[in-house]
């Protein structure tokens, strides 16, 4: 009590020393502070979304989904449950009954981690580890980027279902099994591919003018990469040179998925025509010569025993669960050189809890290879590699029974048996393949000719400010 009285005397003495003008406004300031404390502003109380009050940090019913902010309350709080069942805009991959009222939707933001999301939902990390275990066969969780959507089903404080939606045409679902662990299903919808011809004249540079005419920046990058050995884009391209590109874009139920495929390119460079054409996952010139080297069947030198073959229905030797084996295992000593099976770009160098250290190489829009359980990576993400280049040393990282190399070959995102699949191993098309290519080449050239200005064919232009298809675009 004595301390309180002493403090009050000191405050009173301080106020008496203030100028008269300052002392006059003190009551007004005190009253304003009291009002703010008793009646907080609207922004601090709630945010109005779709006509409903939602306290900051709690789920928001936005249209047909429930959006989870990063700052989540504890899941046992009754305020976390949506007032109405949330409708999910995708069909379940596995034929089962899903209680949509438990489904949560969240879009990955920059800086997010699965560990952080599981912690905010108060889910046990053991659930995450079991999902990672199921993911060993597909490695989709390592490809999560901002914009990828998650659909999460939680019941009894346990994860029942996790769905990754990379696009409207590609999703991966992990579903809890009745006995133990999770199983996964991957769906890639073929959709409808619509072909467009984009033509133009170079004024500033190929990249600038091609994008102005409607090519996606990823398509421009791919074209310059494919033609880098034929064209020096800084020296050979002149003002007035022309370009013609056939590109297909994927749609599902009329909605663009964002996936595109460059099918043909014809350019004038330094007064000379240059062209490339897509056939069976690879690009060729008009004479059927491949732009890239063929693949090696085995990504190493010497001979190594196959310890586990490609088997989509394999029974896992460690967990006892049914897990697809999407690659071929070769028994080899730790430190054995691992070679790139073909030319390409390194897209992943990742340490996975179960797959161990692995490298992924994208060889084209159609072909990808993976090398798992490595001891050391000798390349970095984004690096270009050549066929036969040493990219890693084999090892026994991750969950394995012994040192070996797990080698995967994927075509259009789907794993195939690298030992038996029909993969490009020739540098020039011959026989039946050459006849098929010549027929497709004739179609490409006809469509590109029809797309010339004034011929009434398919021509896309995006020179308008809103970057939409020009009104005079016509279909084939």
From TrEMBL:
Q: Which domain of life is it from?
A: Bacteria
Q: Which residues belong to any copy of the LysM domain?
A: 104-152
Q: What Gene3D superfamilies does its record include?
A: 3.10.450.350, Glucose Permease (Domain IIA)
Q: Which GO terms describe its molecular function?
A: metal ion binding; metalloendopeptidase activity; peptidoglycan binding
Q: Where does it live in the cell?
A: Cell envelope
Query: TM spans, by residue?
Result: 20-39
Q: Which cofactor does it need?
A: Zn(2+)
Q: Tell me if Cytoplasm is a UniProt keyword of this record.
A: no
Which GO cellular component term is one of those annotated? cell envelope
In this chain, the stretch annotated as Disordered covers 453-476
Q: In this record, what's one Pfam family?
A: Csd3_N2
**CDD domains, per database record:** LysM (cd00118), M23_peptidase (cd12797)
By its UniProt entry, which PROSITE patterns does this protein fall under? LYSM (PS51782)
Q: Name one GO biological process term.
A: proteolysis
Tell me the keywords, alphabetical order. Answer: Hydrolase, Membrane, Metal-binding, Metalloprotease, Protease, Transmembrane, Transmembrane helix, Zinc
Instruction: Report the main location listed first in the record.
Output: other
Q: What is this protein called?
A: Murein DD-endopeptidase
């Amino acid at each position: 009590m004595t301390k309180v009285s002493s403090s009050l005397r000191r405050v009173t003495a301080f106020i008496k020393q203030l100028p008269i003008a300052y002392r006059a406004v003190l009551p007004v300031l005190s009253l304003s502070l009291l009002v703010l404390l008793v009646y907080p502003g609207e922004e601090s109380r709630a945010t109005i979304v779709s006509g409903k009050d939602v306290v900051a940090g709690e789920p928001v019913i936005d249209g047909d989904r429930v959006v989870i902010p990063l700052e989540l309350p504890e899941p046992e709080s009754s305020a976390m449950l949506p007032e109405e069942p949330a409708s999910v805009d995708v069909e379940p991959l596995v034929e089962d009954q899903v209680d949509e009222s438990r489904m949560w939707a969240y879009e990955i933001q920059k800086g997010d981690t699965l560990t952080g999301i599981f912690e905010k939902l108060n889910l046990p990390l053991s659930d995450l580890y079991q999902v990672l275990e199921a993911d060993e066969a597909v490695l989709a969780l390592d490809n999560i980027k901002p914009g990828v959507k998650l659909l999460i089903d939680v019941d009894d404080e346990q994860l029942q279902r996790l769905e990754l939606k990379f696009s409207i045409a590609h999703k991966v679902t992990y579903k809890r099994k009745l006995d133990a662990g999770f199983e996964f299903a991957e769906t890639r919808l073929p959709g409808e591919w619509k072909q467009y011809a984009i033509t133009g004249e170079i004024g500033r540079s190929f990249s600038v003018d091609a994008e102005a005419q409607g090519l996606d920046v990823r398509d421009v990058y791919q074209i310059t990469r494919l033609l880098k050995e034929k064209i020096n884009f800084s020296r050979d391209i002149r003002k007035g040179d022309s370009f013609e590109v056939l590109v297909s874009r994927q749609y599902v139920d009329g909605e663009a998925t964002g996936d595109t495929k460059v099918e043909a390119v014809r350019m004038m460079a330094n007064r000379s025509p240059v062209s490339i054409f897509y056939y069976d996952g690879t690009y060729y010139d008009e004479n059927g010569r491949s732009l890239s080297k063929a693949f090696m069947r085995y990504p190493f030198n010497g001979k190594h025993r196959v310890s586990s073959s490609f088997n989509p229905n394999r029974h896992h030797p460690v967990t006892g669960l049914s897990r697809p084996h999407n690659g071929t295992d070769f028994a080899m000593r730790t430190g054995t050189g691992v070679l790139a099976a073909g030319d390409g770009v390194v897209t992943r160098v990742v340490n996975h809890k179960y797959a161990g250290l692995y490298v992924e190489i994208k060889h084209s829009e159609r072909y990808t290879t993976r090398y798992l359980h490595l001891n050391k990576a000798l390349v970095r993400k984004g690096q270009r590699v050549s066929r036969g280049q040493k990219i890693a040393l084999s090892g026994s990282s991750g969950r394995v029974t012994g040192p070996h190399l797990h080698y995967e070959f994927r075509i259009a995102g789907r794993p195939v048996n690298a030992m038996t699949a029909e993969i490009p191993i020739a540098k020039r098309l011959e026989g039946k393949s050459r006849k098929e290519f010549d027929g497709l080449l004739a179609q490409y050239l006809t469509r590109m000719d029809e797309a010339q200005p004034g011929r009434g064919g398919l021509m896309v232009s995006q020179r308008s400010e809103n970057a939409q298809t020009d009104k005079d675009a016509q279909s084939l």
